[in-house]
Amino acid sequence: MILESLPPSRLAPDEAARWRALVAADPALQSPFLTPDWALAVQRAQGGERSGVRVLRIEGPDGARGYFSARRRGPVAMPAGAPMCDYQGLAIEPGLEVTAREILSALKVDRLDFSHMLADQPAFAPYLRGDDISHGVDLSAGHAAYLAERRRATGLFKDLDKRRRKAERELGPVRFEAFCRSAAAFDKLIAWKRELMSATGQTDLFDAGWPLRLLSDLLQSRDPAFGGVLFTLSLGDRLAAAHLHLRGGRTIHAWIIGHDRELDRYSPGLLLFQDILAWMDGDYAYLDFGPGDYRFKHQFANAGRAVGHGFVGRPSPAMIVRAAQYQVRAVAERLELGEVSALPGKAMRRLDMWRGLK
């Protein structure tokens, strides 16, 4: 077994193509976050080869290949692009086996943290400390078939139709745009996100600098197989909602979403999702909402995949610290004290976000 760690920019073009082919061939891997393009975009946004972003090139004795990306920060590795990264996992050819501890050694770290690891991967499954479902919309049978099934299952679409008609009566035509190139619309989306983070006491992701560079670079991408795509919805002459999603292969990943809070009564963000799904028909097969338990995801979704959070480490101070954090979290969650029980988990997530943004 040969494991080579290198910056994404040094991965040979034929290796990158092989990695993309692995992702495209396996439905469980079809996410833009699991491609070499994501790792390379993060490396660029975070300052180049000194950023600590690394890809692992794994080669078995029979020539089979596997690939994995992460970011080294001292003795600890984390997902490349965290906290902006919604999936982690190995892209690996059938028959090739690698252990999490081999990955640790190749990365030259004592601990690897993960937040949204694909739950069915043998290398990491034993180290999951909690699970979640990443909801999505499978459009492989076509938009019409999806819509018919969802209308039978939920009243969401009937309600959205009413809100759309109400908006048209009161504000003017509802206008949808895909691949919007408006700098003003992008700036408004970022402003909405920052206002929401401030109002809810969340860490402002964009203060770190590199997340905004990453979004801007991805939005400028003209690569047909990977990049950002800005969708907008206007009610009359007013921008009502904007979404910047990540695209890769035949998947659109819902990512940075925002809307005008003064127009909440029309649900412009959900109207925009409705239009995006219709636009995808025939060209894209899956809209991934990513992890997070929100009502609208349940209502739109007809599919999902299991992910988990946890860590793997070898005996070291870094491993002891993480194990202690998870022990405190587990005890608190077992006590079932409502919001108090959730505090250690929230503190861990906030700390991980801060570490990723540095």
UniProtKB/TrEMBL annotation:
Record keyword Hydrolase present: no
Keywords: Acyltransferase, Transferase
Known EC number: 2.3.1.-
Highest taxon listed in the record's lineage: Bacteria
Gene Ontology molecular-function annotations: acyltransferase activity
Enzyme class: transferase
Name of this chain's protein: GNAT family N-acetyltransferase
Species of the source: Phenylobacterium montanum
InterPro entries for this protein: Acyl_CoA_acyltransferase, BioF2-like_GNAT_dom
Sequence ranges assigned to domain BioF2-like acetyltransferase in this UniProt record: 158-297
Keyword Transferase belongs to the record: yes
Gene3D superfamilies membership: 3.40.630.30
